[in-house]
What does this fold into?
Amino acid sequence: MHSNHAISLGHEFIKQIDEQDHGSNTEYVFTLISKGSLRISYQDVLEIHENTFTLVPAGIPHRLISGENLEIWWVGFCPNCLNLQENSTIMQPFRQVRLGAMPAVKISPQRLPYIVTLLTELQDELKRKHHDQMDIIRSLLLLLLNEIKKSTSLSHSPTSSPDKVTAALDYIQQHYLRPISLKDVAIAVHSSPSHLATLVKNSTGFSIGQWIIRNRLTEACSRLLHTQIPINLIVEELGWNDTTHFIRQFKKAYGDTPAAWRKKQTAKQHHNLLLNSDH
It folds into this structure.
C-alpha cells in the first residue's frame, strides 16, 4: 500500500479472504472489485461481484466474511485533509450509505478501463514527490469519486434502518462534537428515549451512546494522525471530561493508547514515504 498523510491506496490479487473481526475504519474507504466475489456484513450479508464499488464512511461498522479469486483496489482517504465535506455533492454516495443505503455501486463494464487507469495514475502519483503532488492527487480522487457518483443507484434494502434510526444516526453525525445524550437525540427525532434506544440497538447492534463514542473516536484518530495537537487538548475538543476515560475507551477500540497509536501510525507513514522515495 502506498500512503501519505491524506490518502492511501492498495491493489492486490487475493485467492481467498477468511472471516475477519467486526470493525470500522478511521478513514473513508472505497473498494473496486474488478474480479472475483466478496461477502461482507453490513446490516445484512452482501454478496458483491466484479465491476462493483463498495463504500464505507469512517466509523461505520462492517465485517469481511469471505472472498474468492479477487482482484481488488482500495482507496482510503481523510476528507478534511483534502478539503472535502461529507455533505458536498461529490461525497453524497458516502452520506447515503451512512443514512442507510446499501454500500454497493455497480459500474458499467465500459467504464472499468477508465476507472482502472485513474487508480493506476493515483498509485503512480503517490510514489512521486513534487511541489504540486497533492493538487494532482486530489484531482484524481475527485475523478474517481465522480465515477462513483455517476454510477450510484443506491437504494435502501428491505431491511434497512427505520426512518427514526436513520434520522438518529444523521443527528449524531452532525452533532457528535457537542455534549449530546440519548435524550437530545430522541428529542431531535421526535421519539421517546426508551423507544429510540431499542430501535437503534435492534437495527444496528450498537447503542446511541456507542454511536456517539464511535464518531468521536474516529475523529480522534484523524486528529492524532493528521495534527500535532496534544492528546489532552484533543480530549477537551471532542467532549470527554476525563482524559483517563478517553484513553481507556480508545485502547478498548484500537488496542493501543492514543499516544502509542499515534507513534505507530506516524512510523508507518515515515516508512511508506521512504519506500516511495526509493522508487
About this structure: Strands lie at 2-3, 7-17, 28-42, 44-48, 52-56, 63-77, 104-106. DSSP finds ten helices and seven strands in the chain.
